[in-house]
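Re: Re: token formats

Sure, here are both.
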Amino acid sequence: MADAQSQQENESTQASRDIFAMDTYMNVTAYGVGANEAVRRAEEEIERLDSLLSTGDQNSEIYQINQNGGGILSEDTAYLVERSLDLYQSTNGAFDIAIYPVMKAWGFTDDNFRVPEEEELQELLTLTDVNDISYDSRTKEISFQKEGMQIDLGGIAKGYTSARIMDIYRECGLKSGLVNLGGNVQALGTKTDGSKWRVAVQNPQDTDQYIGVLSIQDKAVITSGGYERYFEQDGKTYHHIIDPKTGYPAENGLISVSIVTADGTLADGLSTSVFIMGKEAATEYWRAHSDEFDMILMTDDRKIYVTEGIANSFESELDTKIIEKES
């Protein structure tokens, strides 16, 4: 009896830490005997990846690659570039790490917001073709074919970070833990009592409210929406999710996209991509990849669509329609 009680106490040992990194507030929480060690290592990993992948830190690998027009990538950066290039092809260009010059023109990289002239955008769009990136997966060497090209892995970095923290939790022998990286959530296992984690999906039209609650186990839930970063000029709102085909904020009828999958890196990349695609293209894409992820969409007329793989795990008081694998 004493052994059972001791084991239960060890499993319920909790360690938690709040961190500010990657321009957002984060929380890592772990349960179990190795919880304190896991949280300490998680914080170190967040700081390491932030300093590696930051576009603004002059000492970061990405900054140096952008300044030099290429170079030899470290293991983490090479992995993310490879995943990003795959996603670019898979999403028909919706996920584009070469969009950075356009993001800078809008001021989304340094908060000096402005609406660029059409001519300026058209010129910058010539620098955003991922096919102009040369990458050798054997040597990990990357180079840009056009002067002025720059990349940004911000659309995939937080998801990769949460996935890495899940690896650390497992290495520390944990079976229960949660990571919240600025609203991007990834869970290890279940709660200590065996019940599933319950993740609130934020309402993009009222960020103090949520559109529903999703029950998850060993999954990431990553949401993208125009409400995350935006500015107003002359009565019009401009958000930070840029459509690589136009150079303007995506306007395809979606105001929020949540991706649900065991792969945090994929969840992060797809949340942006699906938002840019719009509901119809996103639905077709999901049907072709339904074994890889599920999604929750909110349209600008306040309708919610949930793919059938998570329909039974999602609770909402709003009108919800199920997207089925067969149309």
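Second one below.
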Amino acid sequence: MNLELDGKIALITGSSKGIGKGIAQGLAREGATVIVHGRDKIATEEVAHNIVNQGGRAYAVFGDLTNDDEVEELVQDAQAFIKPVDILVNNAGGSGDPEEWSTTRPEKWASCYDRNVLAAVRVTARLLPSMRAAKWGRIVNISSLAALMPPSKRPDYAAAKAAMIAMIASLAKEVALDGITANTVSPGTIHSDKLEKSFRKVATGQGLAPNAPWTEIEKIALPMFAQVPMGRVGTLEELADAIAFLASPRASYITGANLRLDGGMWPGL
């Protein structure tokens, strides 16, 4: 299927590494010009350069999304490269240090909310005017299965990711007549460098060699992290493909949705 992303401009926040990097690479493979964002200039530029070296089109912007002035500057830079941004993927955020109810502090919740929810709000609010003027836009928030299945630990993170789903549900109604769609993607257990490092540490503790094939590592370690009916973790390519579809003209009648990529973990309907 041709997703018709050639000529579209996509800004992916927090894309200098991990899941965001995979999303940027996936959108570039589909023909979009991607704007890679990060706080580490060297890492961010490296991702953009690698995309270009593989035949894609990419630029880099930098800034702390908890700082209004830096957000304003990076959005202006992003809008000035070729044409205004068509696609926004709010991926930046993260959980930080584990937070437990026995020691939780309000300031940790506020910081987590700022990094995840308010960061997305800052960028979204600045890009909406140009999307409305163009009568076309795609906004995708990256939430987490933790928003729907909150664990006892990291309650601040689960609450912030749940807020990102609610934010999109509201936004989708606001911009429905403007040619803009707004959706959320909630990944479960997705293969990344960080996840593989954690899995290998656990698997070697169970007697596997540190350089054992990934399939063997996954078989031993996954049940200790999550009960996934499919028996494997998702790939960055699978996640990127789902986001590319939601960001495309092909998904023009999907808005306000929360797409789970969890291998069947979600127990509800």
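The beta strands are 9-12, 33-38, 57-62, 87-90, 137-142, 180-187, 258-261. The longest helix spans residues 106-134.
- S.
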